[in-house]
Amino acid sequence: MKVTIDNLTKKFGDVVGVEDLTLHIDDGEFVAFLGPSGCGKTTTLLTLAGIYKPTAGVISFGERIVNQVQPKDRNIGMVFQSYALYPHMTVFQNIAYPLKLKRVAKNIQHERVQQVANVMGIGNLLDRRPGQLSGGQQQRVALGRALVKEPDVLLFDEPLSNLDARLRLTMRGEIKHLQKDLGITSIYVTHDQVEAMTMADRIAVMMGGHLQAFDSPDELYSRPKTQFVAGFVGNPPMNFVSVDVSRSNGAFIAQADSLRLEIGQERGEAPAGYDGAVVMGIRPEDIQISGAGDIAGEIFIVEPLGREDLIDVRVGQHSFLLLASTETQYQTGEQVKLRFDMEKVQFFDPQTEKSILWQQ
Amino acid sequence: MSLRGELFDRSKVKTEEVSASLQGELIDALRLGVISMLVLLLAGFLLSGVIGPLFALGSVEETVTDVLTRLAWLALPFVAYIAAASVARRYTWSDTPRALGLALTSTVLLFLLVSAGHYAFDYGVFAPRPSLQMTLSQTEAGIRVDAIAPGGAADIAEMQVGDVITAIRRDQVDLAALNLRLSQSEEDTPLRLRFLRGDEELQETVRVAIDSDKQLRALLPGLIIGLVFTVVIVFLPGQWAPYIALVGLLAPLLVGYFWVIVATFSYRTEGLIPLDSNDNFGGFTLENWESIFVGNIAGLEFNIWPILMTSLAIAIIMTFVVLLVSSMAGYALSRMNFPGRRFFLSFTLILHGFPAITLLIPIFIVLLRLGSIPIIGELIGFNTAGGIAMVMVAFQLPLGVWLMKGFFDNIPWDMERSALIDGASRWRTYWEILLPQIRPGLLALGIFAFIGGWNAYIIPATYSIGSGVSNLPVFLNELIDETAPVDWNQVAAVGLFQLIPIFIFFIFAQEYLLNIYAGGTKGSS
Known about the structure:
The structure holds 2 protein chains of 2 kinds.
Chain A: E1 3-12, E2 15-25, E3 30-34, H1 41-49, E4 56-61, E5 64-65, E6 76-79, H2 91-101, H3 106-120, H4 135-147, E7 153-157, H5 165-182, E8 185-190, H6 193-199, E9 202-207, E10 210-215, H7 217-222, H8 227-232, E11 239-248, E12 251-256, E13 259-263, H9 265-272, E14 278-282, E15 287-289, E16 295-304, E17 308-315, E18 318-325, E19 335-340, E20 346-348
Parallel strand pairs in A: 3-8, 3-9, 6-7, 7-8
Antiparallel strand pairs in A: 1-2, 1-4, 4-5, 9-10, 11-12, 11-14, 12-13, 14-20, 15-19, 16-17, 16-19, 17-18
Helix pairs in contact in A: 2-3, 2-4, 3-4
Chain B: H1 2-7, H2 22-57, H3 64-88, H4 96-121, E1 129-131, E2 134-138, E3 143-148, H5 153-156, E4 164-168, E5 171-172, H6 175-183, E6 190-197, E7 200-207, E8 209-211, H7 219-235, H8 241-264, E9 268-270, E10 273-275, H9 287-294, E11 296-297, E12 300-301, H10 304-335, H11 341-353, H12 360-371, H13 376-380, H14 385-409, H15 413-422, H16 426-437, H17 439-454, H18 458-463, H19 472-482, H20 488-518
Antiparallel strand pairs in B: 1-8, 2-3, 3-4, 4-5, 4-6, 6-7, 9-10, 11-12
């Protein structure tokens, strides 16, 4: 089912939940709404579900405009962060509830519930009550309940954030697999950029009720269109530093105090045309500690992540996060040389925060 | 590393010196005892010297400060014993002799301190009291005079050592009776004593004197009580303390219930003891209960069943309506946004604080008018169980609405959204998803409403004047009003009869409540 959101605005009194949002989601696509708390992603989701009525704009499922359609008539399934299982019902009754409301015959209910429960791996828990299940099992019940009525659209509201890290990883894979298998158009709200990057076909990055970007994960990562997107997507986050870019002798130089970096033509030309300072962004993995480097810095913090060390290096009064192999045991206070991969740097306008390299 | 030095300088932390010597501990115990006494003394002086006069200044008549002051004085030594014994308690089981020695020594010392205070201030056993100023002892013939204080009341009346007192005027007395009489006398009360001197029977009037008889002998009972008390405190298992306090506080209530139960099964009671017609223990009977069902108590004829049915009707209607309306209103207030919501909420709270009694007359008029409407008047007009229930419901609703709103507030929004998305209508969500989750709240409110309706007195008594519609509490009052003399055992039986349904209700409700929590419905977060 295609989901089309056109110029959607939702206000609560004077408080703007989401403003002028336009998104076109294809049939069978897995879209993630990504953004910090309070950015309007859950509001959008609940408006799609029909819990909130839009203040302005049009929402259509397929060709049908659903603005005034009640939630029960939208044929959607939703999984909540809190699972929202009915505590007084057994797992079976929970999963069967949407079917019961649709007046599906009892024997078909049994069949379908058993089928869904088996797929979710909870087939042996049908007699339990939610209170007797672990968090992961409850999550599966919630997912089963959303799937059992064969919805046209599946909505996820941060479904994994109450699970422990390990289980989250497993469920992430399962949900993605299931979605691809069933081909149900899915919208997944999360504030965890790793979840969004790994699961979604396209990511809608939101902030302050506005859509910042709507692109594939790769595109968002390598060609961020705003500084917010660049900073929000990617872990550890991108380093930002305010620099002056100038052209000298055919080369482009980014300069900030003692920091002096040479940029290639491809990335250097556009920012050089700017008057005054621009914001330069560089991802931690694009900075290496190397004897051949030309920037001198002092190690301030070393955080072992297991596979790599996350290192905070101070260069003058600027601070850069970078990743280094654990083989070299760096110590706090150590003097090191840094090499910046200037082919991957990003530049943003400090006023509009828009990318200088990738115009929209 | 100055930061480190500052944060972790161990030399700045002083370790408390542990006094291990017996002498040191004794001083500890005494100090604790004295401090607690000083606190109570201060409290007493504050009550009698500051708060009491302040009340008096405002011409408020009260005896509370006086009673509390005297209580403080009375408790003073015992609090000190407890404080001292608490020091000894740490050895109770590891080194019993040491604990006992420590506790008893400090008790004796504290007792001496308290007694010295009593002696100095003429308080306690040294307080001035009515006295005949002679020493008496009980013999077979009567009360023998053993000694006479020179210049005292007895001396003035020319009593002599060896006289045997037999009576005051014509009333035969023994020593206990004489002392009782004495303690009730005031200064200068004449007591005409009849006594034997040799074989002669004489009479002499002794005028009671007020004397503080400072005999150290009188201290002995106090000391013994103190020592026994201390031993009990030393050996009392710590976890009993709350129960002892609880039983102590509940004692008046428990005694009351005990009396009610005993009284219903006996002809007559003296205190808690059932007596028969010869003042002997016994005299159990079922007559009190029988007469309830026969319908005749001291000439007042009645039929208990309609009264019981009225009570039940009021209670059940009330429970049902209160639950229905409160839960729906609570849901609306918790979940919906409508104009006037805030006003409604604060207004119901004010209504709840509004005393029902001030509305009796306006409501009377309303009910009277309602009663003149055909059909509806039969149901909820003046002098109908429905009308009474309706008024009671109105008074119960503010509490119920607030209570239910609170319960609904605790159900996550997601639960409701989930049900709506699953395909339920709002009504269905309310009945099938939300109501089952506030069952404990419904049950609690139901119990409140039922008991409120069952025990209702003022409203049924006011709005069912002189007709058949009266409930048990009203009937109970009638029983007291219209029978003379009042047979209290009969009243107790009716009272207990009224309690029976509540007992049954509670037994079932409790089981149900426990079931709810055992079922783990608290479930998902």
